[in-house]
Structure formats: C-alpha cells, structure tokens
Design brief:
Blueprint: E1 4-8, E2 16-20, H1 35-44, E3 47-48, E4 56-57, H2 71-83, H3 93-107, H4 116-128, H5 132-149, H6 154-161, H7 168-185, H8 193-202, H9 212-227, H10 231-234, H11 236-251, H12 262-277
Antiparallel strand pairs: 1-2, 3-4
C-alpha cells in the first residue's frame, strides 16, 4: 500500500504537492518558504508569539470567532516540512526549538481549540525532527525559554499539561519544563533538585497566611517534574524527600482548613503519597 504525504501550500491556495513515500519519488521545487517566511505568515495574520506565553490573534479582519483563515494550512505545512528532514534540511536546530514553543503556545489559544488534534500531531512531528543526539540539549533550551515566558501562576500548569505524556520525548520535555518553572518560582535562589525539595519541605503549611494556591502549583509542577523523570530511581534521596513533601501536604492541612485549595492540595498529596508507598 502506497503512503502519500499531501503538502498544502500556504502561500499558493489550491497548490498541492504529493510525495510518494513508498517509491521515494524525488520532488523538484524551485522555491520553498524558509523559517523566516513561515514566521512572517503568522505575523501577517496578527499572531503575536514573541511577547507572551499565551499569544493571541490581533487585528482580525473577519471580526468573527474562530482561528484566522489558513492557520490550519500553516500547521499542516509545518507538519509536512519537518517530516521531510531526511530529504532536505528546512529548519536549523534553533528554528525547530522555537517551532516547538510556538506550537505549544498555539495549543493554549482558545480560538484554536478546534484544532488541538492537528496541533498535537504537529507537535509530535516537530519533536521527532530532532535526532537522539540533538534532543537532550534542545529539550533543555526549549524548557528554559518557555519557563522564562510563562507566569508563575495557574497558567503555567496549563502550559505543562498541554504537553502530551504519550512518549519518552514528551515526558522528558514535560519534566524539564516543570523543573525550570520551579526554579523561576523560587527566583533561581535554588539551583538543584535537593534545593527545590528542601525549600518545599521547609514551608509551614499550618501558617494560615500561606497561599495554598501557590502550594498547589508547586505540587503539580513537582509531580510532573519527578514522575516523568528517572531521577527517582537513580537517586533514592530525592525519592525520600518527595515522600516527606507529600506527607507534609497531606498531614499538615486538616480537613477543617477552609483556605482556598486546602482540600485540593491535601487530596492530591494523599493520592500521590499512596502511590509512592505502594512501590
């Protein structure tokens, strides 16, 4: 059975290039848009992704709801381009890293909720664009850049959770992003894993002035950082500190505590603690 990739040209509506992958038929093209043109295409539609972790479309000509015209084609075009790496290098490593950031930002836009499946497929393709040798450094670069852009509030959890957990690279990115956000949450005053967990353990949860929404954010970030990272198996001390932190969240917040998020922190920590004690 022959497999075909259909590349819808964003710049020439109606123009379709078909690639016979089974026979690997070569394609001769006089010009393909580069990364600069692809970014420019989003900017022309008023899409601002460089100033916020939650970008949005501005100056929409249609005035209606939903994504601008051709954004679906733009996503498909990016998806097709990264799948062609074996034949032609269209993106540099830094371009591909920024593309991952852009796709994640697009996933956060309410106007594009109807395109989430397409965006997730594109995200998977872009992440697969990196070789195994490249992925480690690129994952760190992507995570640091995203972490520097997301606000240290509930929105950062949405950024983390829009990354799938369906593969090793997704898990790696989700874990690394959560870790880097935690570092920023503590104003980079801690520099390693033990420092983060020691700081979390030292928090006095019985202090009624403590904002438990902030603790809930820390708890979810720490969960995503550790449970998608082999560090728990490689470093028993981290595993023990994780258990102490969960026990504090579970036991130091009583059922009569009426602070917002008290119940959510206690319940989530108890559930995670039960999972760790069974191992």
């Amino acid at each position: 059975m022959q497999l075909w990739f259909i590349l819808s040209c964003y710049w020439c509506p109606g123009c379709v290039i078909m690639l016979n992958q089974a026979k690997k038929t070569p394609i001769s093209t006089e010009w393909l848009p580069g990364y600069v043109e692809m970014k420019r295409a989003l900017e022309l539609y008023g899409y601002l992704f460089s100033i916020s972790s939650r970008p949005q479309f501005v100056n929409s000509e249609s005035g209606g709801r939903g994504p601008p015209k051709n954004i679906r084609s733009w996503i498909k075009f990016i998806d097709a381009c990264v799948c062609m790496r074996s034949g032609q290098h269209i993106f540099s490593l830094s371009d591909a890293e920024e593309l991952v950031e852009i796709i994640i930002c697009l996933c956060l836009d309410c106007q594009l909720q109807g395109l989430l499946m397409l965006l997730y497929q594109c995200m998977q393709s872009v992440i697969s664009y990196f070789t195994d040798e490249e992925w480690g450094n690129s994952c760190e670069n992507i995570a640091k850049s995203l972490a520097s852009r997301v606000p240290a509030d509930y929105n950062c959890l949405q950024t983390v959770e829009c990354i799938s957990v369906s593969g090793a690279r997704f898990n790696h990115l989700r874990s690394t992003l959560s870790y880097n956000i935690l570092l920023i949450c503590f104003d980079n005053k801690v520099t390693n894993e033990e420092g983060i967990l020691s700081t979390l353990i030292a928090i006095n949860l019985k202090d009624k002035k403590w904002d438990l929404l902030k603790m809930y954010i820390y708890l979810v970030l720490t969960q995503n950082w550790l449970l998608h990272n082999p560090i728990l198996e490689e470093r028993p001390m981290i595993y023990e500190m994780w258990g102490v932190y969960l026990q504090n969240c579970s036991c130091h917040i009583t059922s009569t505590d009426l602070r917002p998020y008290a119940s959510k922190v206690r319940t989530k920590a108890s559930y995670l603690l039960y999972g760790t004690t069974k191992k």
